[in-house]
């Protein structure tokens, strides 16, 4: 469905303002005393008018945009807008009241910009329609989930992430890689698009763990802890969805041909740690996290 603003029936309460009050409200717009007088006249016409105003997402719902009005207040709207037109930076109807009224009655008048009222000049009477937001959205975006998790773990981490179709083959970096620029600027994560979707999610977590652990981390204890932390947070985020995770015990020494520096101390065995495997000398990620938060053994490497 298309975006639609919130529509509210409102009463304008613009009347009874002194020139000084109007000057204060319109400060810094380069208006003259004559302009303030015209605004005052417009405000007196608008005062008490009941009309439809709209609130929009694009200006953070800050001002009330004129949306429509009934015939019975048309005369007051016409005269109010005529006076407001006198302050227009490029006046088309300066002192041309008859011309303005003729155009108005003929439906030819176009204000050229949205007419707005400030919050303080508006009394809300009734919501006619709630805002309808744009309806195209992701209902699950696991990449975004991981980015949110990272911001919770350490809001000071920076990374640029790109999906890279040129990462393929059997060399290191088949699945993903981090590039730490020599000038200490933002690290770049490449994620291969030639691996299963779920593996891409896990590779993102893997590479972010490298950024937490630092450039020289390889797959040392710091990296393991960081990666585990991301997985635990992921798990917590998705546990309401009935997620179950296989436990993969992860110990000091060599497992699947991959050397681990250290036993993990902080591991929660109910959450588990994924095992790495080596296929043709390339570390692949057989335990991947699905978009529902589950893990399964991928068919990768066959
Ligand atoms: Zn790695």
Automatic annotation (TrEMBL):
It comes from the Bacteria. This is SprT-like family protein. It comes from Tepidibacter formicigenes DSM 15518.
């Amino acid at each position: 469905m298309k975006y639609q603003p919130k529509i509210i029936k409102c009463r304008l309460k613009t009347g009874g303002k002194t020139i000084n009050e109007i000057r204060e409200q319109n400060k810094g717009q380069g208006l003259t005393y004559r302009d303030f007088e015209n605004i005052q006249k417009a405000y007196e016409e608008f005062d008490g008018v009941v009309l439809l105003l709209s609130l929009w997402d694009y200006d953070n719902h800050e001002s009330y945009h004129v949306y429509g009005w009934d015939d019975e207040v048309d005369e007051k709207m016409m005269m109010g807008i005529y006076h407001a037109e006198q302050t227009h930076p490029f006046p088309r109807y300066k002192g041309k009241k008859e011309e303005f009224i003729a155009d108005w009655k003929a439906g030819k008048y176009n204000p050229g910009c949205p007419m707005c009222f400030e919050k303080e000049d508006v009394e809300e009477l009734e919501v006619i329609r709630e805002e309808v937001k744009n309806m195209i959205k992701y209902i699950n975006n696991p990449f975004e989930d991981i980015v949110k998790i990272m911001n919770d773990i350490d809001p000071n981490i920076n990374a640029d992430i790109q999906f890279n179709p040129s990462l393929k083959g059997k060399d290191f970096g088949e699945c993903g890689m981090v590039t730490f620029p020599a000038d200490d600027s933002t690290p770049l994560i490449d994620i291969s698009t030639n691996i299963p979707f779920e593996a891409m999610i896990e590779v993102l977590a893997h590479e972010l763990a490298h950024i937490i652990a630092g450039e020289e981390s390889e797959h040392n204890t710091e990296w393991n802890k960081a990666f585990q932390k991301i997985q635990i947070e992921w798990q917590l985020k998705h546990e309401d969805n009935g997620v179950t995770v296989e436990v993969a015990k992860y110990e000091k020494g060599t497992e699947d041909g991959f050397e681990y520096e250290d036993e993990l101390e902080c591991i929660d065995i109910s959450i588990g740690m994924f095992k790495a495997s080596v296929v043709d000398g390339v570390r692949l990620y057989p335990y991947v996290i699905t978009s529902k938060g589950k893990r399964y053994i991928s068919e990768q490497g066959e």
